[in-house]
Write a structure and sequence with these properties.
This is Membrane protein DedA with SNARE-associated domain. The chain crosses the membrane at residues 12-30, 50-72, 138-158, 164-188. It holds the Pfam family VTT_dom. With 208 residues, the protein is mainly α. It contains nine helices and no strands. It has one domain.
């Protein structure tokens, strides 16, 4: 497969989106924005259906969020410590909450996913705080849909405006998204202050 050719991607972009977007719910460094923005760029090039990319990305985002939410709501997170990858994930949750805070409001569930690392932090915090499953599910669905529309839109607009190869449009879209997300993150952090329960002492354990 020639990854630099739009024709080589075809319908495979939809199958890439599902595991990568779900994986991002557990491990934020997974490049979910990249693959969804690429779907938007391919749509601009006539090689994918923008609406289908949005729906697949939103569904995968919701499924990943529900998985993490239930994991922490049912207090099963310590089971992960049996494996090295599980301990890495557990540490990633601590780090994400330390950076993004522990807000469990419905607005945060919808909006903080646009900030790097915010999706994992807010989803885990909502489970820890025993937020209503129905309320979380609805907010996660709405947030996932808005995120998918935003990401696909970035790729589509960039591709249509620049006329560059889809991979170049994807990189530009990702760069724009990261800059905007980082800017919003700085604003949110300053307004909320340091509300994280995460402490610097490695001997102090949190109840999750």
């Amino acid at each position: 497969m020639d990854f630099g050719s739009a024709d080589s991607w075809g319908n495979t972009i939809y199958f890439w989106i599902i595991p990568i977007v779900m994986g991002d719910a557990i491990f934020p460094p997974v490049p979910s924005e990249m693959v969804v923005i690429t779907g938007g760029a391919l749509s601009a090039a006539g090689r994918a259906n923008a609406l289908l990319v949005v729906l697949v990305a939103a569904a995968a985002s919701w499924l990943g969020d529900i998985l993490v939410f239930q994991l922490f709501k049912r207090r099963l997170s310590h089971v992960l410590d049996r494996w090295r990858w599980g301990r890495s994930f557990h540490r990633a949750v601590h780090t994400a909450i330390a950076k993004a805070g522990r807000s469990t409001t419905y607005g945060a569930i919808i909006g903080i996913r646009f900030i790097p690392g915010g999706r994992l932090a807010t989803t885990a915090a909502a489970g820890i705080a025993n937020v209503s499953t129905r309320g979380f599910s609805l907010c996660a669905a709405l947030g996932g849909l808005l995120w998918a529309v935003w990401s696909v839109g970035l790729g589509y607009v960039t591709g249509a405006a620049t006329g560059l190869p889809f991979w170049a449009s994807s990189l530009i879209g990702v760069g724009v998204g990261l800059v905007i997300g980082a800017g919003v993150g700085v604003i949110v952090t300053r307004r909320r202050g340091n509300r994280s329960p995460v402490v610097d002492d490695p001997d102090v354990e949190l109840d999750f």
